[in-house]
Amino acid sequence: MVKIIASLSALAVAALAGSVSDFPKEIADLMDPTADPCTDFYQYACGGWYKNAVIPADRSTTDTSFTVIGDKNDKIIRDILSANNPKLTEYYNSCKDEAALTAIGVTPIADDLKNIRSANSTNSILEVAADLAKKNVPAFTQPYVYADKKDATTNVLYAFQAQLTLDQEYYTDSGTWNYLKPLYEQYIVTLLMLGGNKSEADARKAAKLIMDFELQFAGVQLSKLEAMEAEVSSYNPMSYADANQKYPLSIGIQLKQFGFNIHEGCMDNTNKIILQDLSLFDRIEKLVAAQSVEDLKTIVEFKLLNAYSTSLTPALATANWKLFGKVINGQKAEPSREKRCSDDIQTMLGELVGDYFVKASFDSTSAKRADEMVLALEASFKQGIQNATWLDTETRKNGLTKLSKFVHLIGSPENPQTYPTLSLDAKDYVGNRNKINSQDTANNLALIGTKVDRHKWSSPASEVNAWYSPRLNSITFPAAILQIPFFNGKFEPAQNFGAIGMVIGHEITHGFDNSGRNYDGDGNLNPWWSDETALEFNKKAQCIVDQYSGFDVISELTGQSLGHVNGRLTLGETIADNGGLKTAFRAYQNYIQSNPTKFTQETGDKVFFLSFAQGWCSKNTDKYLQRILLDVHPPGKYRVYGAVQNNDAFAAAFKCPANSNMNPSKKCYLWE
Ligand SMILES: [Zn+2]
C-alpha cells in the first residue's frame, strides 16, 4: 500500500514537472523526477546521480562538475607530465622518486635545521625565521606585494599574519580542539622524531609547547570574518623605520632580512609597508616577545618540518596525510604518489603546466564563445543596476562606471610565468621547491613601486575555478572551467547560461557584494555609495545573512545536524550566487530573443535552472561538510536552495505554490 501511494505521488509530481523527457539526456540522467522541485529542488536536480555516487577512498567529497572536470584535467596533465617537457619532467621526477627521498631523509633541510638550532638570541632565531619566509615558510608574519588599496595603479608592500598549521577555528572552537588535540599532538611528535631526530619524551614536551603557542597565536589572529572586514576598513601605511620601531620582532627583522633599509624614514610608493590592522600586529609582537629563545627555536623548527613534511620522506608525507587527509578531511586512503606530485606541480609550476594544458585542451572558438557570454552577462548586470529602484541616481551612475571598467580574462594568462632562467634537477625535489619559492618571492618583491598589471592571474589555467579580483577589478575564467558540464559549444543556450552563465554572473556580482562594493572601477578603496543607498544595501544583505543562517547542514550519513551555515561569513558568496543566477537568467532571456533554441519557453526555463543546480550536486563526508562550514562558500546543496528561494523566475518556471519550500513568501533581492 505504501508503495502504491508513493508511486502514485511520484507520477503526479512527474506530470506536474511536465517535461522530463524533453530535457537533454545528460540532465535527465542526474535527476530524481520523483522528487517535487518545489519542495526540494536539489533532490529533483541531483537525486538520480546522488543515489549511486561513490566518494573515492582518497577523497572526502565528489560531485558532478568540479570533480568530473578535475579528473579529466588530471589525465591531460598526466600526459603532459609523462612527455619530455623541460622543467616539468625534472620537477615531476624529483617528486615521484620515493626511493631517493627515503635514502636522503631530512638532508635537504639539514642546513635550515642547523641554523635554527645554533641560534642563540631572539634576534638570531627571528633572522632564521625571516630567511625561511623567503622560501615560503613564514613563521609569524609574511610580506607580500600587491596593488595599493588607495592607489590601485601601483604595487606596494603589505604585511600579513602568517597562517597557522590548522585552520584557526580548530583551535578556537573548544569542542573541535578537544577532539583534535591528541591527534595533532601525535602528528607533531611524529614530525619531531622522524624529522627532528628527537626522543619521544623530548618530542612530547616540545609538542605541548608548540600547541600552547599556537593556541595563543590563534587567539590573537583575526578571524576570517574580521580579516575580511579589516580588508575594507583598515589602511595603515608606515615607513620602514616606523614599522621597525613599532614592531621590531615581527616586522623589523623580516624587513632587514629581505633587504629593506629599516632606517628609511621617508614614505613613498617604494618605501612603505601597509598593515591591515594595527591591533593585530600589536598582539603578534607582544606574543613573540614573550617567548624564550629556546621556545622560539622549537616553534620555528616545527614550522619548518610541517612545511616540508610532504616533500621529504614518504613516512613524513604519510604522517601529514594521516592528520590532514584522514582526520581532518575524512579520506579513507592515501592518494597515490603520482596524484600528489601532479597536484603539487600544479601549485608550484601552475602557469607553466597551464600553458601546456591550454595548448592541449582549449581552442580559440571556445574562447570566443566564452567571451561573448561574458559580454552578455555584463550587459544583463547593467540592466540589473539600471532597474534597481533602491539605488539613487548618483550611486547607480557610479555602479555603471565600475561595471564598464571590468577587465575579463579568459582561458590562460597572456604572459605565463615559465621560469626561463631556472634549472631544475630530477634528483632534488626540495631544492627544486626552494628555487621556485625563492624566485617567486624575489619576483614579487621586485614589483614594489611598479605599475599594477590588471591582467595578472592569481591561479593557473588548469584550475577548475573562476574569480573576481577587487583591486584589479577583473574577472577570470580559466580554460579548465570552460568545459562540460559548465560550458560546451554544442549545448543549448539554456544549459550554457544556467551553468557557466551563472558562474560568470557570480563573479561579476562579486564586484558589487558586501566587500567588492567598497572598491571603485579602478580598484581603489573608494566609497561610491550615498549613505542612504548604503543603508539600503545593508538591509538587503541582512536579509540574505538571516536566510542562510537558517540553513541547518545535515550529515549525509546520520541525518544529524552538523551546524548552521554562517550567514555573515558566507555573505559575499551568497550575494554573488543570488545576483549571478538572476543575471544569467535575464541574459538567457535576452539571448533567445534573437537566437535559435529547440526548447519551448517552459522547457528552456526549466533546463536553465536544472543546469545551474547540477553544477552543485555533491556527495560529502561529514568531515568535509564540517570543514566547508568554516569556509566562505556554503555547501553546494544550500547554495542551490538559497538562490532559487529568492528567485521569482524559478518559482514561475516550476509553478511552485506560494510558501512551498523553494518559493517562500519572504524573498531577499540582492542583486536584481
Ligand atoms: Zn565567489
Automatic annotation (TrEMBL):
Domain Peptidase M13 C-terminal: 465-669
Domain Peptidase M13 N-terminal: start-end pairs: 37-413
SUPFAM superfamilies assigned to the protein according to its UniProt record, in alphabetical order: Metalloproteases ('zincins'), catalytic domain (SSF55486)
GO molecular function (one): metalloendopeptidase activity
Keywords from the UniProt entry: Hydrolase, Metal-binding, Metalloprotease, Protease, Signal, Zinc
Family annotation (InterPro entries): MetalloPept_cat_dom_sf (IPR024079), Peptidase_M13 (IPR000718), Peptidase_M13_C (IPR018497), Peptidase_M13_dom_2 (IPR042089), Peptidase_M13_N (IPR008753)
Any GO BP annotation: protein processing
Name this polypeptide is given: Endothelin-converting enzyme, metalloprotease family M13
Taxonomic classification: Eukaryota, Sar, Stramenopiles, Oomycota, Saprolegniomycetes
